[in-house]
Specification:
- The complex is a heterodimer.
- Chain A is α/β, with parallel strands linked by helices.
- Chain A folds into two domains: 235 residues, 3-Layer(aba) Sandwich (Rossmann fold); 249 residues, P-loop containing nucleotide triphosphate hydrolases (Rossmann fold, 3-Layer(aba) Sandwich), CATH 3.40.50.
- Chain A is 34% helix and 23% strand.
- Chain A contains 18 helices and 20 strands.
- Chain A has a six-stranded mixed β-sheet, with helices on both faces. Chain A has a six-stranded mixed β-sheet with strand order 16-17-18-13-19-20, sandwiched between helices.
- Chain B is mostly helical.
- In chain B, strands 1-4 form a two-stranded antiparallel sheet. In chain B, strands 2-3 form a two-stranded antiparallel sheet.
- In chain B, helix 2 crosses helix 8, helix 7 crosses helix 8 and helix 11 crosses helix 12.
- The chains are: A alpha/beta, B mainly alpha.
- The interface between A and B is large, with 42 and 31 residues.
Chain lengths: 510, 331
């Protein structure tokens, strides 16, 4: 795996430290000219951070990039562009109100003495548009009128006008039809023939086998493996590289008895779900939901909690159909949600722990319509003790708490309610290891009390560590229901990765 | 794993001091300003002037109570000045029309009810537009402000409408134990809305919505319904203030209370209620209203010309919002 001196570009000991997180840890690999390199890894493996460093959006903490024997450490995006790097993100960086030509030349529009020379602009833009298969569109058309696929081509044309030698694509096909994908692949092959160096980030392994010449795998911010040829390489081998971490047991799982169905979800559809979802959570059971970002797990949780509209289907709590139109209805039906983004959706940062804890359950304890001071105080103190919330005082503002303690405050809020089912969306994201196992203990305690638990997580070891059963989501669909005994990391991740065949099938149906 | 404590080494004491300063800091400022004015401004500390001062702030005080709730929820309302004018005119017209038919007492009740109806309607339109159709509060209430102002002129035919029933004037002009009735009304409003904010779930939920609307929604608060109610309350309060004002002026005047909404918002913000929502206390409203009133009263006593008073009030507001910004950052 030693880098050949002939390689056009090289990442040299790149590390990136964010507050509290080492996003990239001594990443070291090289890529030759005229080839397509796939970058793969689970969510949070470090691919996006690497692209940000390549594009100059984040300077590396240590290390540098070497391009054609010149050392670079991009301080900003301009220096990366000047060095011939173009990163094409999933969210395209185009101005929909402006024309294609204006977008392509934004920042260096050809100017006459005073006004933009439009004739020259259109001619030059059209030249580049032809190269990316946009020869049948006028350069005067507003970008807002183009399809997503066409917009991507505009973005590529923009990269070409800047004479980019290195082009990186971040999940380029996630919103393309299969026909548009074929066009994109044609262009990528052309770019390869023009001796460009291309990075291709995707979760779709089938695409990688189709278009890439070599693969680099990331895991937990580290470079795990670079396969310099696709020959003899299989999907399973890549998946194995992606998940091959040692599992340290911080989960202390032990089986519990399960009772009747606590939550029964039948054919539920709504925003973010591609097909109807049905599953069941029994009393005392912990269900883990795994999937890649955008797989529909968070969306499902929000629908079940009434924070997003349910378009069809039926939800039952202990055999009773519940009609949830708003979170307030869900809470009254015994369904609670601890949301994914605690700071934005969980706590109210400017209010105290006491206010945050009592905000919902206090309605059961009013005295003639007024707050019961005694209960308000007793309840928050009891929860602070029971959940070991670390704070000098119950009057501490929620914004001053650590992530783990904020999560506990959101949990505390529901503990004074009659919980039948609790939905936990990424319950330990951004929480340190010690606090994590405290959260797991709380989850087990809740399940032990006969509550049905649904825990969404992007961390595979966590899902496997705490769940009795694992639901796997992929591209808005519930694709598998795996019992704990049958779950392996390879199996779960393989199920969660989008299937090329499925996409083609859907493409034809539409 | 370490316990998360932020701030200096002795967080408990310093956060206590912070909390006290946060809650009562403006009261201290108010007291200082009061003492300074008493010493420096001739005739400030006299019975007639205190009467005039409290009467002058009573209107702002009443409406500040509900404006506080709007601000606390992260919204605001520009229409209340126009509602004061419009509801006063409506009260006057309805009393004049109804009194000859049903008698003075019934006419008065009908007039007051009609005027509260105006407030209810404007509040309803504001609330539905802002909370359910989700249009920006500034634009919505600017629109309803002009509509209400226009209807005031239309109903009053462009002129002040004198009230024919003299009993109606009692509300605004009579005194009890030497203190004008509107001052009592304002004190009652402070007590009621202070209690509502501090001691009921309604008040706490208002602060939660202003502090983080999405989190409040996910905590089970029915945010849209709550906001609608806030705007209705505010409309009703402005209409009631309009009735009191009409009584004091013995007529409904479509031209009155231009820029009143800005006075109310200025007072609230000056007192420390956050424009961004989530931070409010009745003490903030009280101190803001009184500080504004005292400064204006003192300027009058010192014969500062009206034009200069505008400049001074603008400067005070500017200083107050900059102060608010720093308070957000450090508290």
């Amino acid at each position: 795996m030693s880098s050949l001196p002939a390689d056009y570009m090289e990442f040299v000991h790149i590390s990136k430290q964010f507050p509290g997180v080492l996003a990239l840890d001594d990443v070291n690999f090289s890529v030759p000219q005229g080839s397509v390199r796939a970058l793969v890894g689970e969510n949070g493996a470090g691919k996006s951070t690497l692209l940000k460093i390549l594009s100059g959006a984040h300077p590396p903490t240590t290390g540098h990039i070497r391009i054609a024997d010149r050392e670079m450490a991009f301080e900003d995006t301009t220096s990366a562009i000047d060095a011939g790097v173009a990163v094409i993100y999933q969210e395209l960086q185009l101005v929909p109100e402006l024309s294609i030509a204006e977008n392509i030349y934004l920042g260096h529009l050809p100017a006459g003495s005073m006004f933009i020379d439009y004739r020259q602009l259109w001619d030059k833009a059209f030249e580049n548009m032809r190269m990316v298969g946009l020869g049948d569109v006028s350069p005067k058309v507003r970008v807002g009128r183009l399809s997503i696929g066409q917009r991507q081509m505009v973005e590529i044309a923009k990269a070409l006008t800047r004479n980019a030698g290195i082009i990186a694509f971040d999940e380029p096909t996630s919103s393309l039809s299969s026909r548009e994908t074929d066009v994109l692949f044609g262009i990528i092959r052309q770019l390869r023939e023009q001796n460009k160096t291309i990075f291709y980030v995707s979760h779709r392994l089938e695409e990688i086998f189709e278009i890439c010449d070599s693969v680099t795998v990331f895991r937990d911010g580290r470079h795990v493996a670079t396969r310099r040829t696709m020959e003899g390489l299989t999907r399973d081998m890549i998946v194995k590289d992606m998940v091959g971490r040692e599992i340290v047991d911080i989960y202390h799982y032990h089986p519990r008895p399960h009772g009747e169905a606590a939550l029964k979800v039948e054919d539920v559809t709504g925003p973010g779900l591609a097909s109807p979802v049905s599953f069941e959570v029994r009393k005392g059971e912990i269900i883990g939901c795994f999937g890649l970002v955008g797989a529909g797990r968070t969306e499902l949780m929000r629908i079940l909690f009434g924070a997003a509209p349910r378009r069809s289907g039926n939800v039952e709590v202990f055999g009773r159909t519940v009609d949830v139109k708003a979170p307030a209805d869900a809470i009254r039906a015994g369904i609670m949600l601890c949301p994914e983004d605690r700071k934005k959706e969980g706590v109210i940062p400017g209010l105290s722990i006491q206010e945050n804890t009592n905000i919902s359950a206090r309605r059961h304890h009013l005295r003639m319509g007024f707050l019961d001071k005694r209960w308000e105080y007793d309840n928050v103190m009891e929860k602070i003790r029971a959940l070991a919330i670390k704070t000098p005082s119950q009057r501490q503002l929620a914004r001053n708490l650590s992530g783990g303690n904020q999560q506990k405050v959101v949990l505390a809020r529901w503990l004074a309610e009659k919980i039948k089912v609790i939905l936990l969306d990424e319950p330990t994201r951004g929480i340190d290891v010690g606090a994590k196992s405290e959260i797991y203990d709380i989850i087990y305690r809740l399940a032990g009390e006969g509550i049905g638990v649904v825990a969404v997580s992007s961390e595979l070891p966590e899902v496997m560590g705490i769940s009795d059963r694992i639901l796997v989501f992929s591209e808005g669909e519930l694709v598998a229901d795996v019992p704990r005994a049958e779950a392996t990391q390879e199996k779960i991740l393989s199920l969660a990765l989008p299937q090329e065949s499925k996409k083609h099938f859907r493409g034809e149906e539409i | 794993m370490s316990a998360q404590t932020t701030g200096p080494a002795n967080p408990q004491n310093s956060s206590m001091a912070k909390t006290i300063w946060r809650d009562f800091g403006m009261i201290v400022v108010l007291v200082v300003i009061f003492i300074l004015c008493s010493l420096l401004v001739p005739r400030f500390l006299s019975v007639p002037n205190m009467k005039a001062l409290t009467l002058a702030v009573s209107m702002t005080g009443m409406v500040a109570c509900t404006m506080m709730f709007c601000l606390a929820s992260g919204n605001f309302d520009m229409s209340c000045g126009a509602v004061v004018a419009c509801s006063g005119v409506v009260a006057a017209q309805v009393i004049n029309l109804a009194a000859p038919v049903f008698g003075g007492a019934v006419g008065m009740i009908l007039g007051i009810l009609a005027s509260l109806g105006v407030g209810l309607l404007v509040g309803l339109v504001n609330g539905v537009t802002i909370a359910y159709i989700k249009i920006n509060a500034l634009i919505t209430t600017l629109a309803t402000m002009q509509i209400a102002r226009g209807f005031g002129y239309i109903i009053g035919d462009g002129r002040a409408v004198g009230v024919s029933v003299e009993e109606f004037f009692a509300l605004g002009t009579k005194s009890w134990l030497g203190i004008p009735i509107p001052v009592y009304i304002t004190i009652v409003c402070f007590a009621v809305f202070g209690t509502l904010l501090e001691k009921t779930a309604f008040g706490r939920n208002t602060l939660a919505i202003g502090g983080n609307e999405e989190a409040a929604n996910l905590a089970g608060i029915r945010v849209s319904a709550h906001k609608l109610l806030l705007f209705i309350l505010h409309g009703l309060m402005a209409a009631f203030a309009g009735v009191v004002l009409a009584s004091r002026m013995t007529s409904g005047q479509p031209t009155t209370s231009q820029g009143f909404e800005l006075d109310v918002i200025s007072a609230c913000v000056l007192g420390g209620i956050s424009m961004a929502g989530g931070i409010a206390s009745i003490w903030f409203a009280i101190s803001g209203v009184l500080i504004m009133g005292i400064l204006q009263n003192s300027m009058n006593l010192m014969n500062v010309q009206t034009f200069y008073q505008y400049v001074a009030r603008g400067l005070i507001l500017l200083i107050a919002v900059i102060f608010d910004k720093y308070k957000q950052k450090y508290m």
